[in-house]
Design a protein that fits this description.
Layout lengths: L14 E11 L2 H11 L2 E6 L2 E5 L8 E5 L6 E9 L2 H8 L8 E2 L7 E6 L5 E6 L16 E3 L10 H5 L6 E2 L8 E9 L2 H11 L2 E8 L7 E8 L6 E2 L3 E5 L8 E8 L3 H13 L3 E9 L5 E6 L5 E6 L3 E2 L6 E4 L4 E3 L13 H4 L1
Bound molecules: fe (ii) ion.
The site of fe (ii) ion has 4 residues, from strand 16.
Length: about 350
């Protein structure tokens, strides 16, 4: 019930980042409406599939497909292999599908792992990146944003000549998919699959407040050695006994800053979408968070200002406690699967 010590070794498949996630929705048009309000950009539509992108290097970060049986489904996350050699290594892991062409803009190849618990994980390689100008952050809300003035330093005054903070209402534009995770019935077996086959290493592990030798949550990062990566790209929560089936807890997408977060929140509220929890500040990972429910009931998060860590930060283990420093009270159904109604 305790998570074993995990380290990355060159023999494991090295992944460099998360690229995209797969979903199926009963009403694709309704989801598309939500997606635009949430800050995605439609990259391409192919039949019953819409590829949504952010302004990052990935040609798309969210694949939305019309559900054939009308039930919402999560199809797992796709990770980019660090090299062709690593991709070929992934193909040799037991349970790997044969590599096949990756449909969608940018091309590439994909290997899929259909897990015994009905979830999926994908490894991709050879996809063509978008060209990104990292000097300029695209926005739907900021007319002008200079540096922040603090009590003792006024950098905006110093640079000035009409440098005011000016904004207007609009969606919080997405940069990329940052992380996702499961409430998992097969916690120990799945943890073993992800961490023994790939360079996935826990940044923080939390144990049950009453049962100290039972780990209940793992925030897992991609170990890139000395290079910094997001505090967590993936997470796993041990499902409480009443949960019948493993489900995705939420997927999360990066946005640029605090003003974008609040403007995006107001935009989604004004459009009548269902707020779940936020805006607040997380403890582990430090993200400024804001959770919403999409039309299928999947929880979906905007985050800004997340931590990055590297190999020098060892796995920490602590008791499970409050997950926010500030923000609204945690809703009672935050851990629940809100898609349940539509899956029955
Ligand atoms: Fe999150």
């Amino acid at each position: 019930m305790r998570i074993p010590h995990v380290e990355n070794y060159p023999s494991k498949v090295q992944l460099s980042r998360i690229s995209h996630v797969y979903f199926e929705h009963a009403d694709l048009e309704k989801f598309s409406e939500f997606a635009h309000d949430f800050g995605f950009v439609e990259a391409e539509r192919r039949g019953d599939v819409i590829y949504f992108r952010g302004y990052g290097r990935d040609p798309y970060c969210y694949v939305a497909k019309k559900s054939a049986d009308g039930k919402p489904k999560f199809g797992g996350g796709a990770f980019v292999a660090a090299s062709e050699e690593e991709f070929n290594k992934a193909a040799k892991i037991p349970g790997a599908s044969p590599p096949k062409p990756l449909e969608g803009p940018g091309g590439g190849q994909v290997i899929t792992f259909a897990r015994p618990n009905g979830t999926f994980m994908h490894v991709i390689y050879g996809q063509e990146d978008r060209q990104v100008d990292t000097k300029h952050i695209p926005t739907e809300t900021h007319d002008h944003q200079g540096p922040f003035n603090t009590p003792f330093e006024k950098p905006r005054l110093a640079r000035q000549k009409g440098q005011f903070q000016r904004y207007h209402p609009g969606p919080a534009l997405i940069h990329k998919v940052g992380h996702y995770g499961y409430v998992c019935k097969e916690f120990d077996a799945e943890f073993d699959f992800y961490t023994s086959n790939f360079n996935l290493v826990p940044s923080d592990v939390l144990y049950h407040p009453q049962i100290h030798d039972m780990d209940v949550l793992a925030f897992i990062r991609l170990d890139l050695g000395k290079e910094y990566s997001d505090h967590h790209t993936f997470f796993m929560q041990r499902a409480p006994p009443e949960v019948e089936q493993t489900y995705v807890h939420h997927t999360s997408y990066e946005i640029s800053d605090f003003d974008t977060q609040l403007l995006g929140h107001e935009w989604l509220a004004k459009k009548g979408w269902r707020a779940v929890w936020g805006v607040g500040r997380h403890v582990l990972g430090s993200q400024i968070f804001d959770y919403w429910a999409d039309p299928s009931g999947f929880k979906i998060e905007h985050y800004a200002d997340g931590d990055v860590v590297n190999v020098d930060i060892k796995t920490r283990r602590d008791v499970a406690g409050p997950i926010s420093v500030w923000g609204p009270e945690l809703p009672k159904d935050f851990g629940d699967d809100l898609t349940k109604e539509q899956r029955q």
